[in-house]
């Protein structure tokens, strides 16, 4: 890979997932009798949650389509949907003929009440009012309140809560009820959402372990790279790209399985 804007691009989450799917498929096909665990650095990309996963981050307060725009915008607000990458049935990403990732807007899913029953985030598509529209944080919280999921808060107190504290930087970091967004954010189903990588690997029967933050040197693969570089330097210098590429691949092949195991 030649990284850069006008070259091969950068290694994105989509690439990481594609690589994880390939790795999970390979190991489960070749060694079906084992449990497979992949160790990842504690990096932001690795922790990213899938688009479409339950998240209180961008949720509007009211039912979609009910809030009228101001003077400048006469249209009511659009339905709250989330853009996701389109995928083939085997989970791989879909591209158009120009190699651009295909996207689609989908409904957010994954909410459940404390008793485990599903909480619909949208009105049914055949509802007489608000058909297919997002319910909004206020109604979602009210439904949870009625189920007893929010303690003994009254409907009136709930209704008067702000949508969110300024820029979602809540003054009290331990508060679970300062604003609507914080209340949802702290609900068990919202806080249990897994990262894309964990989800992707789980679908392919593999487990992911994240290293402690800022301790990527604990990753055994670092020792493999180090060993490979040491062998690489024994090769003669060259300015020919094909020679360098061949040396790199040869070098990686020379790291013995036995020494890799020792690093682990
Ligand atoms: Zn708050």
Termini separation (Å)?
Answer: 27 Å
Bulk shape: elongated
Number of strands: 4
Return the average pLDDT rounded to an integer: 90
Order of the strands making up the biggest sheet: 1-4
Instruction: Determine the number of helices (DSSP H or I, runs of at least 4 residues).
Output: 10
Which structural category fits the helices and strands?
mainly alpha
How can the largest sheet be summarized?
2 strands, parallel
* β-strand amount: 5-15%
User: What is the count of distinct domains?
Assistant: 2
Order of helices and strands: HEHEEHHHHHEHHH
Give the uncertain stretches in residue-range form: none
Radius of gyration: 24 Å
Helix content estimate = 25-40%
Bound molecules: zinc ion
């Amino acid at each position: 890979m030649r990284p850069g804007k006008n070259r091969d691009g950068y290694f994105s989450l989509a690439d990481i997932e594609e690589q994880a799917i390939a790795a999970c498929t390979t190991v489960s096909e070749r060694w079906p009798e084992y449990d497979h665990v992949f160790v990842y650095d504690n990096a932001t990309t690795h922790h990213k949650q899938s688009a479409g996963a339950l998240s209180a981050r961008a949720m509007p307060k009211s039912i979609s389509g009910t809030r009228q725009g101001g003077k400048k915008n006469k249209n009511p607000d659009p339905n709250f949907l989330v853009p996701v990458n389109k995928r083939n049935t085997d989970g791989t990403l879909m591209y158009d003929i120009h190699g651009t990732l295909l996207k689609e807007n989908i409904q957010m899913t994954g909410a459940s009440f404390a008793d485990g029953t599903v909480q619909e985030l949208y009105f049914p598509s055949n509802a007489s009012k608000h058909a297919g529209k997002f319910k909004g944080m206020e109604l979602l919280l009210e439904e949870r309140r009625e189920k007893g999921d929010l303690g003994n808060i009254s409907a009136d107190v709930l209704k008067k809560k702000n949508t969110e504290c300024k820029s979602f930087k809540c003054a009290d970091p331990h508060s679970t009820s300062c604003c609507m967004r914080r209340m949802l954010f702290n609900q068990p189903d919202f806080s249990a959402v897994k990262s894309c990588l964990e989800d992707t690997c789980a679908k392919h029967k593999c487990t992911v372990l994240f290293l402690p933050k800022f301790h990527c040197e604990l990753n055994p693969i670092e020792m493999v790279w180090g060993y490979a570089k040491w062998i690489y330097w024994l090769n003669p210098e060259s300015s020919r790209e094909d020679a360098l590429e061949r040396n790199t691949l040869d070098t990686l092949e020379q790291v013995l399985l036995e020494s890799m195991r020792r690093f682990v």
